[in-house]
Amino acid sequence: MVLSGESLLAIDGGIPVRESMLPYGRQCIDEDDIQAVVDVLRGDWLTTGPKVLEFEEAFAQYCGAKHAVAVSSGTAALHATMFGLGIEPGDEVIVTPMTFAASANCVVYQGGVPIFADVDPGSMLLDPESVRQKISPRTKAVVAVDYAGQPCNYSALRLICKEYGLALVGDASHALGGFLDGRPVGSLTDLSTFSLHPVKPMTAGEGGVITTDDADLARRMQLFRSHGITTDFRQREDLGMFFYEMTDLGYNYRITDFQCALALSQLAKLQKWINRRQEIASLYDKGFSEIPQVIPLVKRKEVSHGYHLYVVQFDIEKLSVGRNAIFTALRAENIGVGVHYIPVHLHPFYKGRLGYGRGMCPTAEAAYEQLITLPIFPGMSDEDAMDVIRAVRKVVEVFQR
Ligand SMILES: *Cc1c(COP(=O)(O)O)cnc(C)c1O
Predict the structure, then answer these.
(1) Which atom of ligand 1 approaches the CA of 195 most closely?
(2) S-S: 76 plus which of 71, 147, 303, 356, CB 3.0-4.6 Å?
(3) What is the pLDDT of residues 236-292, one digit of tens each?
(4) Is the dihedral of CA 172, 178, 180, 185 positive or negative?
(5) Do the beta carbons of residue 62 and residue 233 sit within 8 Å?
(6) How far is the CA of 207 from the centre of ligand 1 (A)?
(7) Beta bridge partners of 230
(8) What is the pLDDT of residue 149?
(9) Closest Cα to residue 308, out of 189, 383, 198?
(10) pLDDT of 71-93, one tens digit each?
(11) How far apart are alpha carbons 218 and 57 in whole angstroms?
């Protein structure tokens, strides 16, 4: 086939679909966000102060949870959950491999052993039956990830955790603003964690939050965030006002007041941004319904999807090249595609240290060869979304079998 001009791929010297790169994600920062940060900078509190508390209260309310604990990152939030649950050396925690490494690393931080369970092939969400198969007498908890922004099958996961006495942690870094059966993400598991990194649904620059209904766990995680030091002695007259005690080994995982001012300002706009993400996703759904080689992930009907990511699987059987060639071709068209994720158990750290490798989670491993993440963020225009669909169609038409 001889192609020229518009239909010649940019990697082959053709004209790219877009003149400039469309990133896969991008934060929204408005003037009111900037003003909120500046106001704190002019005040007396830079780190843990009134804005941290105010943000935690607003966040807990948004998520329908009794408590929220704000920390310095999503990774710190995950670590805090493992500490809060008392994970110790030798304990096993079942984790999905289709995630960012931090969801598993948090287990290792506490000396525990992450055990990878496989995912459902349509949605990339942790498969409850695979979780059940990986349970051993040493299993203490499950970390599920709301991949791409879709809440997991928590009714099934909750039942399994109840049956075996396991704690259920939801790494909801992707899913803030989503719902399952009308219940907000953040209220669906014993503990839920969030990231406030700039590509996530809302940002504080860096930051993380844990939500829970358990007051005791919340209190333990608050201590953990600041060296395990308690200052609850201020009312005791026999002790000096200086007195404090370190009761646990904690870290400095504090978040600043100006970050929480930004987060509060962002939280007020979150639902509007989620709505926009959902609009872009419907444009994609419609566009890709006409391209048989492109299969969007399955969205379950009981879910309101947060669409942190819009992920498609390329049907490699119907194409003459693999995922990497499609990825490179789309990049050349100036579409900022990504791949989420390299299955965690295939990283050298896990292969080398824990002897993990290929074959542990066949569905995740096979899916990894076909996945591409397309741009989605609230500041995208309909025209941007159309560019993405045009670029995908162009690449598929050249590479179709
Ligand atoms: C972003 C992310 C994290 C880590 O959050 P940070 O704030 O970058 O530490 C953990 N898990 C998932 C699923 C994430 O997407």
Answers:
(1) 7
(2) 71
(3) 778 777 888 999 999 999 999 999 999 999 999 999 999 999 999 999 999 999 999
(4) positive
(5) no
(6) 10
(7) 245
(8) 98
(9) 198
(10) 999 999 999 999 999 999 999 99
(11) 13
What's the mean pLDDT in 177-201?
Answer: 98
Place of tokens 């408005």: 30
Q: What is the 3-state secondary structure (H, E, C) of 113-149?
A: EEEECCECCCCCCECHHHHHHHCCCCEEEEEEECHHH
Record the pTM: 0.96
CB 295 within 8 A of CB 313: yes
Question: Taken in order 193, 199, 205, 206, is the CA torsion positive or negative?
Answer: positive
Residues 177 and 39 sit within 8 Å (Cβ to Cβ) = no
Ligand 1 center to residue 130 CA distance, Å?
23
Provide the CA 364 distance to its chain's centre, in angstroms. Answer: 17
Other C-beta atoms lying within 10 Å of the C-beta of residue 178: 26
Report CA-CA distances (Å) from 152 to 129, 275, 307, 362: 13, 20, 13, 19
Please say whether the beta carbons of 387 and 335 come within 8 A.
Answer: yes
Q: Tell which atom from ligand 1 comes closest to the C-alpha of 206.
A: 7
Q: How many CB atoms lie within 10 A of CB 297?
A: 21
pLDDT in the model for residue 353: 85
What is the Cα–Cα distance from 313 to 86, expressed in whole angstroms?
A: 38
Distance 74 CA to ligand 1 centre (A): 5
Phi/psi region, residue 343 (left: phi>0; alpha: psi -120 to 50; beta: rest), is beta
Here the tokens at position 104 are 């598993």
**The predicted structure's pLDDT at residue 236:** 75
Q: 236-254: b or e for each residue (b if 16 or more CB lie within 10 Å)? A: eeeeeeeeeeeeeebbebb
Quick one: average pLDDT of 339-366? Answer: 96
- Distance between Cα 261 and ligand 1 center (Å): 21
**Model confidence at 1: pLDDT above 70:** no
Calpha distance 222→68 (Å, rounded) = 10
- Give CA–CA dist 116/118, Å, rounded: 7
Beta strands in 47-121 (DSSP E): 67-71, 92-95, 113-116
